[in-house]
Specification:
The protein is built from 6 helices and 9 strands. The protein is an alpha+beta fold. It has a single domain, classed as YbaK protein. The protein has a 5-stranded mixed β-sheet with strand order 5-3-4-6-9. InterPro entries: YbaK/aa-tRNA-synt-asso_dom_sf, YbaK/aa-tRNA-synth-assoc-dom. This is YbaK/EbsC family protein. Pfam families: tRNA_edit.
Length: about 180
């Protein structure tokens, strides 16, 4: 395709502006990109879903872990109410679910949401969940280290393919709060 571009990092053979390949993305992600004013800065890098797990992906495609971020779905409980939220942190860091996330969400208990819940609620594949296209009203907590990256590799909503986005643009997504020390 003539719209191929060179990514800022990694060894990919098939990279395009994400808006040019919306048909490769799950509906919630494609829909969010269509309505996001920063979408023209997002790249889609095709990849083998068998290599989607973070460490394997980084090694296979030559992407530094510190340039990658993982998005996880959190279930925060207070009383009988459960609030779902998403957290985004660099792949070389661990999200502080039990203290930072729990306290920030005002929950008694916080844990990773069950896989079936995360998939059903986001409309995305487990192992590819991305902060772009999350359900309306969800809190999205992003570690400052991600927002400060010039470019960051994140999921595409599917196990096949990844998105490359300027970190500062992620901080403009709906429901975002950028936190110091979300991960360490």
């Amino acid at each position: 395709m003539s719209d191929q571009v060179r990514p800022p990092f990694g060894h990919f053979t098939d990279v395009h502006p994400a808006l040019a390949v919306l048909d490769r993305l799950p509906a919630p992600v494609a829909g969010a990109l269509k309505g996001w004013d920063a979408a023209d800065s997002v790249l889609y890098a095709d990849s083998d879903p068998a290599h989607a797990d973070t460490a394997v992906f980084a090694e296979t495609y030559g992407v530094p872990l510190e340039a990658s971020a993982n998005c996880v779905v959190i279930a925060a409980k207070r009383g009988g109410a459960v609030t779902l939220a998403a957290c985004l942190a660099r792949a070389d860091m661990r999200i502080d679910v039990n203290a930072t996330v729990r306290k920030h969400l005002g929950a008694r208990k916080a844990s990773f949401a069950p896989m079936a819940t995360a998939v059903a609620e986001t409309g995305m594949e487990y192992g590819g969940i991305t902060p772009i296209g999350l359900p309306a009203g969800w809190p999205l907590l992003i570690d400052r280290a991600v927002a400060d990256l010039p470019h960051v590799l994140i999921g595409s909503g599917a196990r096949r393919g990844k998105l490359i986005v300027p970190g500062r643009e992620l901080s403009r997504l709906p429901g975002v709060e950028v936190l110091e020390g979300l991960a360490g």
